[in-house]
Design goal:
single chain; 347 residues; alpha/beta; DNA polymerase, domain 1; TIM Barrel; 2 domains; 10-stranded mixed sheet; binds S-adenosyl-L-homocysteine
Length: 347
């Protein structure tokens, strides 16, 4: 598969001058890539340059092949990558700006019990340009430009584990926050991880102040290992230590994700254990009732159970909110994004 133009930073595109074209052509190609133009729609470049680009690179990393619209304004997209793989993304309109949920891998190898994204294992990592293309594609679709963005917030919460595709994710963060490009502030980006501890430490040392979101989902090693196999490699203690380190380095409050799974993590003891676990760490807990994933047979809990859980957190001064789930009717909610590759291949 050829790289796409979005894979390159402004500096990296300087090979265009090495091809013998003047410097200002670099800027034109870069701007066309940010505007997500197809080769056919770039009108300001000489034919010889377009031909040379076409030979070596795809004009874009992906295209939307299907859009599903939810009653609540959420939209789910199926994107086709240039090698035929299919990934998904979700657009969520909010009062304060519009958020795009972005995928970092085709599939996932973390194997969390409650999540649809890992059902077929990991197919491959996305390149930085493919991750960026999701943002540029939807920005263009919504009538946005680089100067007037239609997307203001990004959550790396689609399919895949961003820190398992570390280099491409970090490159994506640099590309998306480049002032010459779409320039979305790192402060408006949340990176969600299942807790790859060494990578969290590495990220903390990189001076990329994204909001770190950690999928916790259970307050003890026993309960967490039952839901998330990664807990065997990096236990809760090490995850909390890494979260503390991230906070110390970036001064950004940590967000923990906690999905209620019936019979696993939603009793009052769990609430108390959770409060004790995060004590003293500046953090917020995003609670969410499990979205049903058919293949897994796991369910969420009752409103009364959630209320009691939240009461205990409040009582212990642990900041928390219950996230309303968006896009359930289009399987666009958390954990419902899956790799459609197999279905696609089988027609
Ligand atoms: N791999 C990263 C990114 C995925 S983000 C991570 O683990 O954080 C998606 C979020 O949705 C994670 O917090 C994940 O644990 C959560 N999630 C997965 N399946 C879910 C489900 N069925 N219901 C609710 N949340 C779910």
């Amino acid at each position: 598969m050829k790289p796409c133009l979005q894979d390159f930073s402004f500096e990296e595109l300087s090979f265009i001058t090495e091809w013998g074209f003047p410097r200002f052509r670099v800027e034109q190609v870069y701007n066309a890539a940010i505007q997500y133009k197809s080769y056919d729609n770039i009108s300001n470049l000489p034919k010889a340059l377009i031909e040379k680009l076409k030979e070596n690179f795809a004009d874009r990393g992906l295209e939307i092949i299907k859009t599903l619209s939810s009653k609540d304004g959420t939209e789910k997209y199926l994107y086709r990558l240039n090698d035929g793989n299919i990934i998904e993304g979700v657009f969520m309109p909010h009062g304060y700006g519009d958020t795009l949920c972005v995928s970092t891998q085709v599939g996932c190898r973390m194997g969390c019990e409650f999540c649809a994204s890992g059902l077929g294992g990991l197919v491959r990592n996305l390149t930085a340009g493919e991750i960026l293309s999701q943002v540029l594609c939807v920005n263009a679709l919504k009538g946005g430009t680089a100067a007037k963005r239609a997307i203001t917030n990004i959550v790396l919460m689609g399919s895949g584990e961003p820190l398992d595709n570390f280099d491409n994710t970090v490159k994506f963060l640099r590309l998306i926050s480049d002032e010459r490009g779409i320039n979305i502030s790192l402060r408006n980006i949340s990176l969600s991880t299942c807790g790859l501890v060494p990578r969290i430490i590495e990220l903390a040392d990189m001076d990329l102040p994204v909001t770190l979101t950690i999928s916790l989902h259970a307050p003890s090693d026993k309960k967490r290992t039952a839901l998330m196999p990664i807990n065997k490699a990096h236990n809760l203690f090490s995850v909390i230590e890494a979260a503390k380190y991230y906070f110390e380095k970036t001064k950004r409050r940590i967000i923990f994700e906690y999905s209620f799974v019936e019979g696993e993590n939603s009793d009052t003891d769990s609430a108390k254990q959770l409060a004790a676990l995060v004590k003293g760490l500046p953090c917020h807990i995003n609670l969410i009732n499990l979205n049903f994933v058919e293949e897994k047979g796991l369910r969420g809990v009752s409103a009364a159970q959630i209320k009691e859980f939240m009461r205990i957190l409040d009582e212990n001064n642990v900041s928390n909110t219950l996230r309303r789930s968006m896009g359930n009717d289009i399987e666009g909610a958390c954990g419902q994004l899956r790799n459609k590759f197999a279905e696609n291949k089988n027609g």
